[in-house]
Amino acid sequence: MDIFVFYILILIVLILFVVGIIYLSYWVPKRFGKKKLGIVISRILIIGTVILILTLFFEDKLFFKSDVKEYLSFQKVELKDDFKLINNESGGLRDYYHKFDLEISNSDRKSIINLIKSAENYQTGINNEFYLPELAKNRYEGDTLYANYQTTWAYKKAIFYPNGKGYTPTYRIISIWKEKNELTFEEILD
């Protein structure tokens, strides 16, 4: 419960700070006889604040096919046919995650499975316990790690890379389900 109160207090301070800046952006020019300038500046700040808030709340709704292709291209996965975005969710205060599910064509599914199986580091056999970050010697400044393997339910293409000292590393997993034409992408910053 204490952490909840802490975040509420931070939110209140942030709101008071933003309202104070907007008020000062109107009041200071008004005191110098430039009321219209104060109105213009404060309105620009209000519009910018509203856009920022809406973007944060509707981030998952503002996710498009071009964003999907960009995320997948980082791991050299390309979808040639049309696909449908089934689900998209992200969040987290300290540990950020992003996950989306796609319905893909059968030919794209087969080509991605072939890409995974033909990878140099493909692990034959089924491995349901694989967690790539455990293999990292230095989570923050080490090498980028890659894995291509299969579980009982899916073929997986994973990458783990550090973002530098003081920044959380990134872990990305692309899963191609064995029983259906679906792709799941997960990104975890932990």
Percent helix: 25-40%
Q: Strand tally, please? A: 7
The end-to-end distance, rounded to whole angstroms, is 23 Å
Q: Which structural class do the helices and strands define?
A: alpha+beta
Q: Identify low-pLDDT runs.
A: none
Topology as a string of helices (H) and strands (E): HHHEEHEEEEE
**Helix segment tally:** 4
What global shape is seen? Answer: elongated
Mean pLDDT figure = 88
Radius of gyration: 23 Å
> Per DSSP, what share of the residues sits in E-state strands of 2 or more residues?
25-35%
Report the major sheet: 7 strands, mixed
Spatial arrangement of strands, main beta sheet: 1-2-7-6-5-4-3
Give an overview in words.
- With 190 residues, the protein is of the alpha+beta class.
- The chain has 4 helices and 7 strands.
- It has helices at residues 2-31, 35-57, 65-73, 106-117, and strands at 84-91, 96-103, 122-126, 145-150, 154-161, 170-177, 182-189.
- It has a 7-stranded mixed sheet, covered by helices on one side.
Précis, in short:
The protein is of the alpha+beta class. It has helices at 2-31, 35-57, 65-73, 106-117, and strands at residues 84-91, 96-103, 122-126, 145-150, 154-161, 170-177, 182-189.
Q: How is the secondary structure organized here?
A:
Elements: H1 2-31, H2 35-57, H3 65-73, E1 84-91, E2 96-103, H4 106-117, E3 122-126, E4 145-150, E5 154-161, E6 170-177, E7 182-189
Parallel strand pairs: 3-4
Antiparallel strand pairs: 1-2, 2-7, 4-5, 5-6, 6-7
Helix pairs in contact: 1-2
